[in-house]
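Predict the 3D structure for this chain.
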Amino acid sequence: MRTSRPISITLGDMQERVDALKAAGRYASTSEVLRAAVRALEREHAALDAIMREEVRRAVEDPRPSLAGEDVFAKLEQRYQQDLKASKRDA
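Done. Predicted structure below.
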């Protein structure tokens, strides 16, 4: 019994890339290309999740004192205003 079901998709300009991968002999079918693409996307998401978990872990374990949200936003606003002035001068 089949565990998957056929789907219909439109690849647009990506069709040329899929065809090139098949022509090069790397994949036998469009289905193989798309399965490999989904696996690659899953690996990418897993890697990004690991990076984010590590960043959160480092932030939680950071011994430096926390900053007040108001201070952070005030500094961000100040930097934004400086960047805005600089971009107007350069224009």
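The CA atoms of residues 32 and 71 lie 52 Å apart.
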